[in-house]
Amino acid sequence: MSNPKVIHVAGWTACGFYRRISAVLGSLSLLFPHRLKVVEHVFDDRNGYRSWLVDGGFRDNFQESAAKDHSSSPFIWFSKTAKEGDPDPSDIEQYLGGHDDTMAWCKQFLNPTDFMKPGALMVDDGHVADHGFDYDLCVIGGGSAGMAAAKEASNLGAKVALLDFVKPSPKGTTWGLGGTCVNVGCIPKKLFHIGAQIRESIHEDASMFGITLSGLTNEDGSPKAPQSTVHWDTVKTNIQNHIRGLNFKYRVGLRDKNVQYLNKLATFKDKNTIETVDKKGRTGTITASRFLVAVGGRPSPLNCEGGELAVSSDDVFFLDKDPGKTLCVGASYISLECAGFLAGFGKDVTVAVRSILLRGFDRECADRIGTHMEEHGVKFKRGVTPSKLEKVEGDRIKVSFSDGSSDVYDTVLGAIGRSADTAKLGLDKLGVTMNPKNGKIVCNHEQSSCPNIYACGDVMEGCPELTPVAIQAGILLAGRLFGKSQEPMDYVNICTTVFTPIEYSCVGLSEDDAKEQLGEKNIEVYHREFLPLEWSLSHGRSTSNAFTKVIVDKSNDDKVLGIHYVGPNAGEILQGYGVSMRKGLTFKDLVSTVGIHPTSSEEIVTLSITKSSGEDAAAGGC
């Protein structure tokens, strides 16, 4: 089963139209609780209602012109999530209308065949075949979303240009075509992570499996745990060479798809024109019927005295010298992943944490990651932020913290968040609605408030910052713009993995979010802690238990709301469960599946212990 449609109804108490449609929708949600959820926003009188809707400008958050003109009661719209309380503009999905439009929708709702047909309702952007501009589509940004959309649009017959220009980081770091993921994100991060895992396995596992390097034996002849040396320049150079090969392949891929690639920086002059400048300062203009902004994001700098001395994730994979003793500032997945592979390479690593680890992820799983990292040598300074960075002893950096303590490091890595790279695009001149806190573009089905300007990937407000999401959204958008498709991007139940020393993968809701959305009484959690077979011989792994849990909705046939796994090979294990989640997986479906033995994945399909039972979640047996 899919998640229920969330519909919001706003009106004032004495309005007959409001009362009537509220009653109809309430009846439908009572009859079909798994298909419809109604969120009410009721006002005491007409003046209060209009003060919120019209004078307060809530209707201005919608793209549809009918919404912007709507002043009567009721006012009805769809949202992405079932948030209660004051309406959240960033959660808006689509305007529905007033009493009559909603009554018509209710009739359609009762016809399941018509109602379940997918389709993205988009605002007419004025595109016509003989538009007279240089291009049908101009894509700004050569990352995952931009390249995917550009190639698919060209496949569908559109004339497409793609502009990509990497502005150097504050430390002067630049890279090639492909965006964050391939150059300064997923790809180098995973390769460094793999290297750290190989080193850990040599140290922790090799001798217990009878493997030794030449001459490394104890006095009794048994294998001795080998020692290792990491050559930073070697691993960095090899990874960068691999990435440069990918950069070249991307350029060839665009050429093969007849996409015009331009290494130029873009700024909007009007909704159909951009001014361009290349690395030599030469300017020009390009016109297009449609634009796709896919510029991604850049790391937020440390906001303290001397913050410019820190490097960011844009720089860490390019460091010319061994990072040495390192401070990672922030509790994001980027900070913890970098801290993890650096510690795995034998570096002295400290993580400065202001509040909690991995905000937005399942709290229990995030805490397990922190515990594992601490047990494996990563130090945590909790409840602190840097207050000052200053150079000492040559190139070393003294960091003073908010609690009055200080320490000296060879490298300070700032990983406190990211903001969209939109500040100098000129979108404000076109009336494009953006989140002022992070510069991200507010969209409905990837369409901005300026109808011919679209956004995909990390630059879009509310979009998970994940490469496969960006690619899929770009392909589907191109299909809607230049093909005959109406298929929208589904941002629900997307798998993701955090590549910390003990990996964490999840799909669906966290335990806390499930309880908040559906109520604790409707939630059950099945969980298990276990020692993966591949770690079972190693003394150094004895405290490194893996963990999994499945969250179900007791009120809806034990529908699975979330699956979480902390342990080795997390991403490889959970990908297939993402398919099942999209198909409405129930707990009965899960445990009726025969597992593959002996694997960690079988622990998920053999879960039986619930949290509510109070039984020990530690697994026994083979």
Explained architecture:
The protein is globular and about 90 Å long. It is built from 16 helices and 25 strands. The model has no long low-confidence stretch (mean pLDDT 93). A hairpin with a 4-residue loop joins β16 and β17. The chain has 622 residues and is an alpha/beta fold. The strands form six sheets. Strands 5, 6, 7, 8, 9, 10 and 20 form a seven-stranded mixed sheet that branches. α6 runs parallel beside α12, α8 packs antiparallel against α9 and α8 packs parallel to α10.
Concise description?
It contains 16 helices and 25 strands. With 622 residues, it is of the alpha/beta class.
Q: How would you sum up the major sheet?
A: 7 strands, mixed
| Beta strand % | 15-25%
Rounded to an integer in angstroms, the radius of gyration calculated over CA atoms is: 27 Å
- Give the end-to-end Cα distance, rounded to a whole number of Å: 34 Å
Counted by DSSP, the helix tally is 16
In total, the number of strands is 25
Helix fraction, binned, reads 25-40%
Average predicted local confidence, pLDDT: 93
Unreliable segments of 5+ consecutive residues? none
What coarse outline follows from CA principal-axis ratios?
Answer: globular
What structural class should be given to the helix and strand makeup?
Answer: alpha/beta
Tell me the layout of helices and strands:
Blueprint: E1 5-12, H1 16-31, E2 36-43, H2 46-55, H3 65-69, E3 75-79, E4 92-97, H4 99-109, H5 112-115, E5 135-140, H6 144-155, E6 160-163, H7 179-184, H8 186-204, H9 232-256, E7 260-262, E8 265-270, E9 273-277, E10 283-293, E11 297-299, E12 326-329, H10 333-344, E13 349-353, H11 363-375, E14 379-382, E15 386-392, E16 396-401, E17 406-409, E18 411-414, E19 418-420, E20 453-455, H12 467-482, E21 496-498, E22 504-508, H13 511-518, E23 523-530, E24 546-553, E25 559-566, H14 570-582, H15 587-591, H16 602-605
Parallel strand pairs: 1-2, 5-6, 5-10, 6-7, 10-20, 12-13, 12-18, 13-14
Antiparallel strand pairs: 1-3, 3-4, 8-9, 9-10, 11-19, 15-16, 16-17, 21-22, 22-25, 23-24, 24-25
Helix pairs in contact: 1-4, 6-12, 8-9, 8-10
